[in-house]
Amino acid sequence: MDDFRHTYLRLCKDNHVEPQDCVLNQLKGFESAKKFKPVLNLSTNSLSSKTCHVLGKVIATDRTFVEYKFADCMLSEDAIKGLTHGFSINSYCKKLDMKGNNIRGSGAEALGRMLRQNHTILSISLEWNAIGMLDNSFALFCEGLGSNDSLQALDLRNNQISHDGAAELASALKRNSTLRALDLRWNSVGLLGGRALLEMLQTNKMVCRIELAGNNIPGDVLKALDTGLSQNEDRAMLTEDHKNKMVVMTKHIKQMEHDKAIQMNELMDTIDKQEDLMRRSKRTTTEKVSQLQETLEERKAAFNSLAAKLAMTESELALTEQKVNDSNMLVARLKQELTEKVSTQQEDLRKEHEAKAKLEARLYKELSEAQDKNIQLETKLEDSERKCRMQQDQIFELKEQITHLQAEQKIKGTHFEERIQQEKNKHREEMKEGEHIRNKEVARVRQEAEETETALRERIQRLEMTRLELEEEVSRLKNTNITDKMHHEESLTIARQKIQSDEENRHKQLEEKLRVTLTLKDELQSRCNQQSSTINEQQSRLSSHVLELENMKKRVEEANEALAEKNSITLSEVGKVKIELNQTNNKLEAERKLQVELREKLEENDRKMAEHLLKQREILEEKESEIESLKRRLKIKEAEVNGIRDEEMQRAQVLQMAIMNYVNKVPKSEAS
Hints:
Leucine-rich repeat, LRR (right-handed beta-alpha superhelix), 80% helix, Centro_Cilium_Assembly, Leu-rich_rpt, LRR_dom_sf, cytoplasm, cytoskeleton
């Protein structure tokens, strides 16, 4: 508000114009008001042309007021030009009131130029002016109106618009596609102007309201105009309803796409978390296996050191061969002890074999359960069984080697009895220490193997649970998509049925109107027949009077005059009936065209609904393809889990073989 007032005062000073008190008082009233309405009301004030030029410059850049009122200001043509120049540039004003300013001639031309250049004003009131007084000026005004693309309401009441001006206005409205309401009351449109407006309605489908009271237009033309306006109004309502439905459907589809994107992101996050967890578990298992391999290498180094000690002992025994003969009694007793130890070792081996058999049975049971869950692992299970058989063969070979070594040990014992007697105490102590160490190592390795096996079983169970959860999630998403698809199809079917029912009701109404019109036509035809019969009766009467009253010429002449009058009346009535029939035929033709347009509109709506349904189906197919891709990724993850499971089983078998090798090597060292 301050900007407007300062700009007005500055421009008045620059143009050497004295600011008018009415304008300043109006602006000060806005400043003192608590609630500011963006309306500048200068009505009933006498504004000079210079003041209007200054106001036009201020209005050109103003963004404060959305409505300006200059009613009953008796503005001159120069004042109108100054104001319209400002409104031509202004892009913020929505409503303009210039009622009662005696606008004519160049003022009307200035308004036409303003309408051609302005693209924001929605309503203009030009009541009680003389815009239609000069045809050339009004033609320029109509050209500007035809080029305008924003005006929705125009008030031209009492503007001396003739039938020629109405024709110009109708020609301009054929090019205009935004005007909805036009007020032409209290002008001189007449029959020709009404017909021009009626012809305009056949082209312009946007005008929904035209006020034509006090224009000396026949009733049939007014009825035809009302019919065309009601059709335009119905069409506008249908278009608006269709636009609203399309906006609602678009918002609903966007919301669905947003929800599906959120669900897909959540599912992808869950899959990434599962992959991260699997990588961590795989890394942990790899670290454990590497630790076990390091432990196995350490045990191999210990076994090698024991073998070196055994070689040194054998070299020492070779030096004591000469003393063997003196220790025969001691050898016999040592043989008995060795026999007991061998039996003990055999018992330990038997127990280990039983434990191994139980372990193999348990492993076979687990493998059979896994085979029931996944048929694809059969080949790998067969490889595992073949490896187990190879291990059994290796065990049998190791048993034979043990027996062979025992026989060699007995042979060596017969040769080295004397050395055995000397080293008896030392050997007993070493055997006890070795037995104790071996028992500890075997117990520890067994415990580690059991712990590893338990951990691997738990991990396999967790992976199975994860796979089941992912399958349930995929099935749930698929069910959700199916329900959403069915819901959309039902909503589209309901909408289409509603549109079809509305069109059927409209068609029934039009058929009812057609039936009433046909009834009226039949009544008019009957009246015409009655008039024809009346004419025939009069002619028969005339002939009878001519035959009977030949001598009464005066009466005959009077009868002829009466007959001529009746004939003229009859002909006038027949002409009226023909005009009414033509009007009825025109109405029927208009109704037929309306039905054709409605059918085309229905076909267009069906086509749009089909296109919309096709787009919905394409979106659902894309979602289903995304679900299929997720299923493929899930299958890949399951394959990776199965691969990890197979690797863990192979590592467990390698660990088991290492334990068996360790257990088989310990008796060799004890025996030697």
